Amino acid sequence: MTPVCPFTKASRPDDASCKRPGENQNKQQTVNDSKSQQEGAISPKCPFGYDSQTFKLGPLSCMICQALLFQCSKCMPCSHVYCKACISRFKDCPLCGADIEKIEDDLDLQSVVDRFIEGHARIKRSQVDSDKEGDKKQIIYEDVSVERGSFLMQQAMRALRANNIESAKSRLSVCAEDVREQLEMTGNTPELCSQLGAVFGMLGDCCRSTGDASSAISYFEESVNFLMKLPKDDLEITHTLSVSLNKIGDLKYYEGDLSAARSYYFQALDVRRNAINHHSAVPSQVIDVAISLAKVADVDKNLENEDKATANFQEAIKLLESLTVKAEDVSLEQRRLSVLEFLNSQLGKK
Question: Which SUPFAM superfamilies match (predicted)?
Answer without folding.
Answer: RING/U-box (SSF57850), TPR-like (SSF48452)
